[in-house]
User: Fold these one by one.
Assistant:
Number 1:
Amino acid sequence: MNIQNVAAAAGAVTERDMANAVRALAMDAVQRANSGHPGMPMGMADVATVLFNRFISIDPSTPGWPDRDRFVLSAGHGSMLQYAIHHLIGYRDMPMEALKRFRQLGSATAGHPEYGHAEGIETTTGPLGQGIATAVGMALAERMLAARFGEELVAHYTYVIAGDGCLQEGISHEAIDLAGHLRLSKLIVLWDDNHISIDGPTSLSTSMDQIRRFEAAGWDTQRIDGHDNRAIAAAVEAARQSERPSLIACRTLIGKGAPNLEGSEKSHGAPLGEAEIAAARANLGWAFEPFVIPEHIYDAWSATAARGRLRREAWEGRLSASDNADAFRNAQQHGGLPDDLAERFAAFRAEHIAGKTKVATRKASEMVLALVNAATDLTIGGSADLTHSNLTVTKGMKSVTADDFSGRYIHYGIREHAMAAAMNGMALHGGFIPYGGTFLCFADYAQGAMRLSALMRQRVVYVMTHD
């Protein structure tokens, strides 16, 4: 699509007005909770507004629409950015009352976005770096599902907002290397390049040139002013046309709009205070009381939902007309395991009990995987460069490559952290049951993502050998 403002129907409302609504809600919710991170939502409000207003395809009335774009807030501490936008575009489980209960016990608006706690949250992003790495798995699943069912049914983007913390965590290096190697062109990362972390300027602890790092991993990169809406839109449009994954470095001011605290670590992880919020309202020209959003602002934000609904309805029409409709629904929506799988397992056990089969445990694992992989093509195997030690590849499995995503086996390389997180992304995306192998002693490397597999109750299989 072009990069013209699709909210024209809202009249005189500008994207700056829309972004200021996000800033106000973030300030107010964190202040009421007396806890949270207002700086990132305020700094990235312009970027997020352009992304949602002009590009992203989601439908709050049908949050699980399979061909929706995926949005991952990897910098999860800025969760009020996502909650505010969800409220403004009309997610039914994000009324103003939910924002007023930000970070309160039992509330859907947790300090970091939690999968399953609120609609439209694609993954849990508490631990920094897990979000961007999980998004790599989502983008990989999109390409693999498109290879199976065609781009008439599968053609969506995975957008990530990441911060310095996400990029400093080691898991990010493994993830961006894998994404670049596989040329996951529908993965777009918007980096909140604000030069600030909790301790102060990022220069205290890093001199990394992130642009060159991503370029070395095979990504397209751009640098922009993260408060220039034209530049933001042009960069996203260019990234959408790229044949490689994209990093957009968005130079922003943390706490944008707070006249005494913007650009300072003091706006990072604490309420701004009533006096500074009042000064920010005056500075932004936001004349409304806390938690008050005028109807014309809601009307402008509703364009995102309206556009998403139309695209979802058009997609449903294509699905209904497709010869692959039943197979797609079975894989994407129903889990797709054959009805006789339990009987196959029973026969398998009976055969080997009767034959007193004596093999190494990893060989026994391979035999079970062979049975499962023959029964369903939903399983996607892989290993952290230990395929013939873990015995995770079975007969007939073809490798996934940047030129051919139709295979069923992923060579994750020596990247246990990224393998585990990417498998979470594949499972969350839907359409596949991923399994991946490594030696048990490397389980600690994968532990962060394994914990999230459990918390999110995802169907991810870890094959650990050589105890």
Note: Residues 295-321 form the longest helix (27 residues).
Number 2:
Amino acid sequence: GVKAMLTSGKLDAEALPRIAAAAGQLAYQAGDHGEAQTYLRQAVDAGYSDTNVVALLGESYIANGQVNEGLALFEKAITDGRASGTLAPDAWYRRGLLAAYRAKDLDRAAQFGAHLIRDYPEPANVGIAATIVRELGVFGSQETLDVMRLMGRTNSYAEQRDYVEYIQAADPRRLPGETLKVIEAGLASGKLSASDSFVADARSQANGRLSADRASLDSYAGDARKANATEATISGAADALLSYGRAAEAEELYKLALAKPGVDADRTLTRLGIAQIEQRKLAEAQENLGKVTGKRASIARLWAAYAARQPAAQ
């Protein structure tokens, strides 16, 4: 049969990749992942570049517990597809994302999440990428806030918990205006109930703070621009401005903050990038997001992919 043909050495170079691919697909369907891997690898190595075969080889590696090898092949299928102008199926992106999640690999999950957002930017895909990064990231409230903001911008909330985590991270006492926007979105979607005590409390706290918070924005920004302003004053004012959508002023202050000692550069660069996306300064945003390191790199990667999808300023 096929096996004998492949091992006999009698096949011409033209036919070998195609027959090895067919044998690999049959073995995969039969559940023999080791054999599938052998033949599919043979086909790919012999130059059989059908992205289906590459992805199937990736699947057989993952099924065999060789997650890194499998993810590298999915990555290749995705980037080859993008380069050729025929995108790989979105299911492969999600398969890579899921395999990275199961392997508890935050970096790889962010990589596949970013691919998904860039090439298949439907809200459900943004939502799954943001959810997996936040599950793996074990973030504090400030990091969580910036993941949830991506969900807010794309309206990719999937469940009640998404709104609740965003409200907790924004904190009605700190960012009342933004908190109220999340509550309104949750009520409009039917995922939050106005009579729920958590929602009612957050709403009344935010409403109680809103007018004073809004009224103090200009003087807060003025203090931040003074020569002797501390990093904390500048960053605090920038954060307040960003939460009210005053992105140009926030951008200016985040840039000032970056020059100050004691600045959290990764947090500031993330938010500088967000403020630039709001203004459609997309290339600058991607450049700043690309400088983010550490835990926040995964969050910045998703935002950069989102920026890559946005139309340029008119």
Note: The chain is about 75% helix and 0% strand.
Number 3:
Amino acid sequence: RQSPMPDAEPREVLRYLMEEHGLKQSDLSGIASQGTISDILSGRRGISNALAKKMAAKFQVSVAVFL
């Protein structure tokens, strides 16, 4: 199922995708630590290129939505 992607900051896109997939921060432990995900969602940290690639693969979206 494909959902339209909102035109938003990368952290808001991540928040949206997590909500759409019913995921919690701990569900992304294979990608990054819960602390890192928390920092990203709160705006204290950006999303690195490497992390953007992992998230794009997890959610099957373009890496560009996280950069």
Note: The mean pLDDT is 91.
Number 4:
Amino acid sequence: MRLLLRAAILLALFFGGYFTLERLIVYPLDPRAISPSDARISQHKVGDMVVWTAPPKRGKPTVLYIHGNAGHVAKRTARFQRLMDRGYGLVAPSLRGGNGSKGWPTEASISTDIAALYIALTSGALTGTPVTPILYGESIGAAVAINLATTTTPRAIVLEAPFTSLKDVAAHLHPQLPLATGLMLSRWPSLARAPDVTAPLLILHGTKDDLIPPKMGRAILNAAGSKQKELYAVQGAGHINMWTGDAQRRLYKFLQQF
């Protein structure tokens, strides 16, 4: 009995440590609560999630921007400003564990949070006016956006460096650790979900992205159910320097349709 108990404790410690490590590696978010530096952006709470918003100019759509797994939403301020300067509205949630948003980030919890935010946005509960947004998903945010788009009808969807699944990314980066990748709680199987995405789709992917290979973006494009879909290869860009002048021009050309 003592041996069984000891084995159970060791297993609990192992898996507890493993899942804590997964959280730190997959979601290395900055927990500091930082307020928007641009006066056009307001801060709200939806449940335990901190959300930044800015209203659109008349006739312009709103972009629901889902950030990537690293850093802080405030680091995307320059991007937000470029969108606002062109009249687009903004809704930018901070994933669990980042910018004062409470809770433990997992695929299930983040999916629940973003679904609740989408309902608050489309019902008018968030901004006072019902809004059907354009989704913009960055890296792991692209997986969140794909998942959301399988059960909702956004006006359009932009994916920046999407991956086929989180397990595929882990296998690409650490092929020597197949057991560890098999134990991951967060799977984000975007390739399997892509056929249920039907909104107009633009994918931006850097040709020099070593973290998420461009072939994954191409696979998402091919699998997507959207009738209007395109992959724009950002020449010479890696994973974090995607917003080149060419990429922005292609993005704004896509957005202006809506």
Note: The longest helix spans residues 2-26.
